[in-house]
């Protein structure tokens, strides 16, 4: 378990919980902390000490750019690799990048919700 991995995951969790109407739980396995808005997943935090990653939804063109630009960003683990990316600790992975990735993922999910299910504006 690395301090950088802990910080990455803590930053992602804090960022997610600061957003409106977010719920979280472990619906798939005790090792995956899943964050949702209106029942839709936007963040997964892996609780495996050997694989300290987060996975977020991402526009396909941004996903390709991130994977190209950062060695510790990979196509989303266990999900549609065009629309999800996994971030691990590594060069260039800053708190700002993690926060932006979580907020962008949340926004992507919210904009695809029916208006009646969208949280109030943030």
Describe the structure.
The structure is a single chain. With 122 residues, this protein is an alpha+beta fold. It contains 3 helices and 6 strands; from the N terminus they run αββββαββα. A 6-stranded antiparallel β-sheet has the order 1-2-3-4-6-5. Helix 1 runs parallel beside helix 3. The model has no long low-confidence stretch (mean pLDDT 91).
Keywords:
six-stranded antiparallel beta sheet, alpha+beta, single chain, about 25% strand, globular, 3 helices
Largest beta sheet, briefly?
Answer: 6 strands, antiparallel
How far the N terminus sits from the C terminus, by CA atoms, comes to: 34 Å
Residue share in helices?
Answer: 25-40%
Strand tally:
6
Mean pLDDT reading? 91
Helix-strand blueprint:
Blueprint: H1 3-17, E1 22-25, E2 32-37, E3 40-46, E4 54-57, H2 60-69, E5 73-75, E6 84-87, H3 95-111
Antiparallel strand pairs: 1-2, 2-3, 3-4, 4-6, 5-6
Helix pairs in contact: 1-3
Can you summarize this structure?
34% of the residues lie in helices and 23% in strands. The protein has helices at residues 3-17, 60-69, 95-111; strands spanning 22-25, 32-37, 40-46, 54-57, 73-75, 84-87. A 6-stranded antiparallel sheet has the order 1-2-3-4-6-5.
